[in-house]
Structure to design on (553 residues):
C-alpha cells in the first residue's frame, strides 16, 4: 500500500487476481477439499462436503438447462437463507445464467418491478417466510397461473420453482428441477464451463435509488470471486474454519463476505436459520464450533444481550466481520472480551463495488477497528475528492471514489444512471463522505444524498417518499433518518396533508403494510403544515433532523 500524502491509496497483493468463474471456483475447491465440510444448514439438517455441493450445483444447472434456460438468461431467487439458495448461487452460474437476488422483504410492487426490469425467465421462491406469503403474492401478480403459461404483468417469466416439499400443481418443486438432470445434460454443463468468461455478468443485486426505482447493480464472476477471496484473506480463513452466517444471502454480506469468502478458502459455511435469531446463532456457534461470525452491530448486540448468553460456550470463535453501520466502542469491546472475537474485522463497501473496498485486519487495534473501516483492499484504488473532483489532502473530507476489478459492470438496462455512477476514467462515485489518514485508514464521515442505514439496510428516502405520494390524502412528504439506539437509524416521515384531509400515523403505516418492505415503513410520523426551506425553495432536511433530535431529547 502506498503511503498517502494526498487522499489516494491503492492496494497491492502477494497473490494475483483469480481468473475463475463461480463454477470453476467451486470445482477447484471440490478438487482440493472434496471431503471437507462445505455447507451446514442447521434448520434443514444439511451437512454437505464440497464434493456434495459441487455435484448438487451441477445437477441443478443441468435441470435449468432442461427447462430451456439459455446462457445469459436471468433467474430470480426470492427466499430466506437455506440450502437451495446456495445450490442456486452456484448452479445458475454453472449454467451460464445471471442470478437476480430479490429481497425476501419485498412486496408486490417491488417484486413486479424487479422481475420485469431485468426480464427474469424463472423465479425460485420459498412458499412463505415470516409475514410474507410468497405463493399468494405471485398468484396475485400472475392470476393466469394454472390456465396459461404467460402472464400479463410478468411477460418474460416462464418458470416458477418452489423451495420445499410441497408445490402447487402449476409450479415446479426445486428437487424436481435437479431430477431433470441426465448424463447428456451434465456433460453439456461440463462442456459449457470452459466457454464462460470471468467477465460475464453472473449476479444482479437491486439497490434503492434516489429517484425511487431500485437499480440493478450487475456484477461479474471476476468482481465477486476476487472480492470474496481477499475478504477471506483479511480474516485469515483456512479450510479448518467454520463461518456462522446469520446475515441474509440476498445481500452481498451473505453471498460474498459469507459464501465466497468460505468457498475461496475451503472453509465451511454454517447457517443457523432462515433469518436472524440470536439464540439460534449462539446455539449454532457452540454446537458447530464455529470459528467466525458475521453480523451488523444490531445482531451482535442482540446476541450479547440475550438472557441466556452466558449459557453458551463461544470459545471456538476467533474472527468474523461487523459491517453495515458504525460499531460503538462498547460493543466492539464486548465482542472481543465476551464472545472471544479477538480477530473480528470491520468492512466497508457498497453493492456496486462487489462490495468491500476497505477492511481492517485481524490485528488492527480496537480503537482503529471502531473509528475507521480499515485499509484499502488489494488491487483496489480509492481517492477522496472535493466538489470540483480534485483529490483533497490527507485528513480532509470529500467524496469517496473507487476504481479497480471490483467496480460493477453497470446498472442493468440503465445506461444513463450507470454513466452517472461510473465516470469516464472508471471511478465509481459512492456518494459517501470520507477521510483518509496518513497511515491509509479510512473514516466514513457522512452521506452526500441522505441515505438511511437502518440495521444494515441501505434505504433511500426518495423511494419511500414517492410511494407515500400515491396516497390520495397526502400532498407532500419528506423522509429522513433519525438516530435510533437499536438500528443506528430509523425512518421518520414528515407529511403535509391535502386541505381538509385528516390522517393518523397508524393510517400511514397501514397504507404501507404489505406494499413496501417492512424495514421501509416509517417508525416516526409527523403531520406538519410546511417544511423548513431555503429562500430558493430547497427543503432543509438537516433542519428536520435537528428538530427531531430536539424532540427526542
Amino acid at each position: 500500500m502506498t503511503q498517502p500524502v494526498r487522499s489516494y491509496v491503492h492496494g497491492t497483493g502477494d497473490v494475483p487476481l483469480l481468473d475463475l468463474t463461480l463454477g470453476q471456483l467451486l470445482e477447484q475447491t471440490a478438487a482440493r477439499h472434496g471431503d471437507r465440510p462445505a455447507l451446514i444448514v442447521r434448520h434443514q439438517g444439511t451437512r454437505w462436503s464440497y464434493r456434495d455441493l459441487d455435484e448438487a450445483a451441477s445437477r441443478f444447472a443441468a435441470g435449468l438447462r432442461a427447462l430451456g434456460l439459455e446462457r445469459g438468461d436471468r433467474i430470480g431467487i426470492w427466499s430466506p437463507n437455506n440450502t437451495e439458495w446456495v445450490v442456486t448461487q452456484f448452479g445458475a452460474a454453472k449454467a451460464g445464467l445471471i442470478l437476480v437476488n430479490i429481497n425476501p422483504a419485498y412486496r408486490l410492487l417491488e417484486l413486479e418491478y424487479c422481475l420485469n426490469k431485468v426480464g427474469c425467465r424463472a423465479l425460485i421462491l420459498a412458499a412463505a417466510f415470516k409475514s410474507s406469503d410468497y405463493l399468494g403474492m405471485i398468484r396475485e401478480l400472475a392470476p393466469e397461473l394454472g390456465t396459461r403459461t404467460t402472464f400479463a404483468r410478468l411477460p418474460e417469466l416462464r418458470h416458477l420453482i418452489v423451495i420445499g416439499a410441497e408445490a402447487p400443481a402449476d409450479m415446479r418443486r426445486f428437487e424436481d428441477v435437479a431430477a431433470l438432470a441426465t448424463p447428456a445434460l451434465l456433460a453439456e454443463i461440463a462442456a459449457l464451463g470452459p466457454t464462460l468468461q470471468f467477465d460475464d455478468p453472473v449476479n444482479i443485486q437491486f439497490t434503492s435509488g434516489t429517484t425511487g426505482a431500485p437499480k440493478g447493480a450487475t456484477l461479474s464472476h471476476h468482481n465477486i470471486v476476487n472480492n470474496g477471496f481477499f475478504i477471506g484473506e483479511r480474516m485469515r480463513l483456512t479450510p479448518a474454519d467454520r463461518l456462522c452466517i446469520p446475515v441474509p444471502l440476498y445481500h452481498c454480506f451473505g453471498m460474498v463476505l459469507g459464501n465466497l469468502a468460505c468457498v475461496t478458502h475451503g472453509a465451511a459455511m454454517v447457517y443457523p436459520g432462515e433469518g436472524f435469531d440470536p439464540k439460534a446463532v449462539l446455539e449454532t456457534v457452540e454446537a458447530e464450533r464455529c470459528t467466525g461470525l458475521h453480523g451488523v452491530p444490531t445482531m451482535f448486540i442482540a446476541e450479547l444481550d440475550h438472557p441466556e448468553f452466558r449459557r453458551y460456550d463461544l470459545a471456538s470463535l476467533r474472527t468474523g466481520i461487523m459491517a453495515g453501520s458504525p460499531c460503538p466502542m462498547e460493543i466492539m469491546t464486548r465482542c472481543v472480551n465476551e464472545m472471544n472475537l479477538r480477530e473480528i474485522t470491520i468492512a466497508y463497501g457498497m453493492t456496486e463495488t462487489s462490495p468491500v473496498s476497505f477492511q481492517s485486519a485481524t490485528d488492527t487495534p480496537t480503537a482503529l477497528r471502531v473509528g475507521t473501516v480499515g485499509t484499502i483492499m488489494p488491487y483496489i484504488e480509492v481517492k477522496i475528492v472535493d466538489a470540483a473532483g480534485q483529490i483533497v489532502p490527507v485528513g480532509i473530507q470529500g467524496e469517496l471514489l473507487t476504481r479497480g476489478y471490483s467496480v460493477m459492470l453497470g446498472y442493468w438496462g440503465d445506461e444513463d444512471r450507470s454513466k452517472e455512477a461510473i465516470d469516464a476514467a472508471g471511478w465509481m462515485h459512492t456518494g459517501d463522505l470520507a477521510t483518509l489518514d496518513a497511515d491509509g485508514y479510512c473514516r466514513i464521515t457522512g452521506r452526500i444524498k441522505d441515505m438511511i442505514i437502518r440495521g444494515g439496510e441501505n434505504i433511500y428516502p426518495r423511494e419511500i417518499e414517492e410511494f407515500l405520494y400515491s396516497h390520495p390524502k397526502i400532498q407532500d412528504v419528506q423522509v429522513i433518518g433519525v438516530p435510533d439506539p437499536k438500528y443506528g437509524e430509523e425512518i421518520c416521515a414528515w407529511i403535509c396533508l391535502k386541505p381538509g384531509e385528516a390522517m393518523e400515523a397508524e393510517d400511514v403505516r397501514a397504507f404501507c403494510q404489505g406494499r413496501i418492505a417492512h424495514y421501509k415503513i416509517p417508525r416516526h410520523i409527523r403531520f406538519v403544515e410546511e417544511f423548513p426551506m431555503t429562500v430558493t425553495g430547497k427543503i432543509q432536511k438537516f433542519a428536520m433532523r435537528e428538530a427531531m433530535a430536539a424532540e427526542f431529547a
Q: What stands out?
A: Residues 220 and 400 are 22 Å apart (CA to CA). The first strand starts at residue 8 and ends at 10.
